[in-house]
Amino acid sequence: MFKVNDNYLKLPGSYLFSTIGKKVNAYSAAHPDKKIIRLGIGDVTQPLAPAIIDALHGAVDEMGKAETFHGYAPDLGYEFLRNAIAENDYKARGCDIAPDEIFVSDGAKCDCGNIQEIFSLDNKIAVCDPVYPVYVDSNVMAGRTGTYDPKSETWSDVIYMPCLAENGFAPELPKTTPDLIYLCFPNNPTGATITKAQLQEWVDYANKVGAVILYDAAYEAYISEPDVPHSIYECEGARTCAIEFRSFSKNAGFTGVRLGFTVIPKDLKSGDVSLHALWARRHGTKYNGAPYIVQRAGEAVYSAAGKAQLKEQVAYYMNNAHYILNGLKEAGFTVSGGVNAPYIWLKAPNGMTSWEFFDYLLENVNVGVDAAFLDSRLGFSFDYFVKMNNNMLIPVTYPSMLGAEAPYSNSGKLRTNGFELTLNWTDKIGNVEYSAQFQLTDAVNKLVEYGGADTYKLGLNETREGYPMNSYFAYVYDGVIKDQADLDAYKKLEGVPSNIGIGDAKFKDLNGDGKISTYGDKDGDDGDAEYVGSTTPRYSFGLNLGAKWNNFDISVFFQGVAKRTLFREGDFAMPWSDWWRYPPQFYYGQTWNEDRPDAYYPRLTHGEIRHWNYQASTLQKINAAYIRLKNIQIGYTLPKGALQKLGIERTRFYVSGQDLFEIHNVKGGWDPESDKAGFNYPFQRYYSFGIDLTF
């Protein structure tokens, strides 16, 4: 009968991140309404950079042509990628690493787990404590770790090097001599680093005792301090004692693409046996190479565009780390990391174990605040959020001398903050069950950074740095010209049409430069155009009402927004935009003439002056707040068993109406829910009835 590898049976439980995933999935299934901030596995969230996407597309196209198709990759990886790695990751930092000492793979995790295969089973391993699980678990599978003590959660034949707050989470040289030393800096999971001088001590020690350092540098892209080495090969003597693992997952977001590499210098030997040759033999036997398209994507990482884009992504993740680090500090927790690595190491409070604290966070903290009162009849939920969206794709405006529109660019940084509030009431009076739920969302966005020229215009601006998305800029309407004296005074301003007359519009000279203009004379001067609002609502709210009595049920849903701005545009803003087009009805009897000297709107005219009177100004500004009866439905369910003989378990009749009425200030019969006033005209009301049958 066949036998299994008993060493696998020694592994306690499941892999760490599998356990985290199971716990989170179980909680989500039990609480589908809860939002979870996932701080477990170090996955990425940002999409691949544009330079990488372009490289992938180009490589895919190559694979579709016979003359450029690629099959199995070379054992060590394609030369174009190994050359790029050697030049940018090593030679640029003064490290003597040749392209043929680089082995391209599908990720550092696999190589860290597989490297132990080329070493004898009687080798003694030393690991930091805490440690990335792969280092230990892969040696357990090989049979190198001895027996497991569940109380201390340690293995008898493993040398543990404590990383504690007392030693700055940096391991000390072990008292027992190891053969294989696992080091990871910046460290997963503590976020700690060591200086070049400290790493040099390890290199000197390994050469002295005849040990090999297995150096995981997957997070080197996050290093910000100058005295922290990016590679162990920056240290003298490392070529004779160190193997280095690198990953494209953390610096370039390749977690879903998979690419990494291992460096084994040819100087690293056990007696006369070259570890480079052993790994080459293992690599060629058990691995068929990373895909060509993926290696081309890896090459793009080292392009000028790739470097710039990935620098922004790394900054995004480090910004998140700073938020977490500072927030936890302010909350009174003891934390470290977050400087040269995206990892934050937190001391569990009140004597909790790590898993106890994990379960506490999952079950009790979640996101925001949840509470229930009055025997759970009244429910309350509050969530506050701050989101930074870096590298967002936005239309960039460049000077007109380019002669064409610029393409969309990943150059925007958008910050959004706000809250979500939910109130629930559920109760019963006699045979009547009823419920009410109110939801309120506050969301404020601001385009923090924007590439290109600040060429804003009157009217709708999709993007402008320092303002919300889809902002309106307009002149400030100052009423109509009342008489000849008013006309003479106003015509002294530059930019005022020469044929302007009594009854025409006045706009304020906000910057006091003696002219009406969108742009001022000085850089940064907005002229007379001012920000007057955004099409994106500040507040969104909804009210759900429901009731059941015997077999009858009713549900009512009100929906609305507040602090939202729309502008009348085009034909809907300008009366007689064409000579044959009637003005919108709300202008009737409201425009200036000699019989209506106090009218709010300027005079009607077919001339060019109409473009002045009815251009983008606060005259056209609309408060687009509204509340709408979005849906109402009334139903009746036949008594159970009424149609069972026909195989029908449940029968429900219902009538419903949608968008039945609204309260708003958008004139002209236009829909306040539309993006632009006037373009979803007229209103559409829906009525329906139906039968629900359950067999």
Describe the structure.
This protein has 695 residues and is α+β, with helices and mostly antiparallel strands. The chain is 22% helix and 27% strand. It has 14 helices and 30 strands. Strands 14, 15, 16, 17, 23, 24, 27, 28, 29 and 30 form a ten-stranded antiparallel sheet that branches. The protein has a seven-stranded mixed sheet with strand order 1-9-8-7-6-2-5, with helices on both faces. Strands 18-19-22 form a three-stranded antiparallel sheet, with no helix packed on it. A hairpin with a 2-residue loop joins strand 23 (539-549) and strand 24 (552-562). The radius of gyration is 34 Å and the shape is globular. The two termini are 52 Å apart.
Secondary-structure map with pairings?
Layout: H1 6-9, H2 16-30, H3 50-63, H4 79-90, E1 102-105, H5 108-114, E2 125-129, H6 133-142, E3 148-149, E4 154-155, E5 158-162, E6 180-184, H7 196-209, E7 212-216, E8 242-247, H8 249-252, E9 260-263, E10 269-270, E11 273-274, H9 275-286, H10 292-300, H11 304-330, E12 335-337, E13 344-346, H12 354-365, E14 369-373, E15 378-395, E16 408-429, E17 432-449, E18 459-461, E19 471-474, E20 477-480, H13 484-490, E21 505-507, E22 530-534, E23 539-549, E24 552-562, E25 565-567, H14 609-613, E26 621-623, E27 626-637, E28 650-658, E29 662-664, E30 686-694
Parallel strand pairs: 2-5, 2-6, 6-7, 7-8
Antiparallel strand pairs: 1-9, 3-4, 8-9, 10-11, 12-13, 14-15, 15-16, 16-17, 17-23, 18-19, 19-22, 20-21, 23-24, 24-27, 25-26, 27-28, 27-29, 28-30
Helix pairs in contact: 3-10, 4-10, 5-6
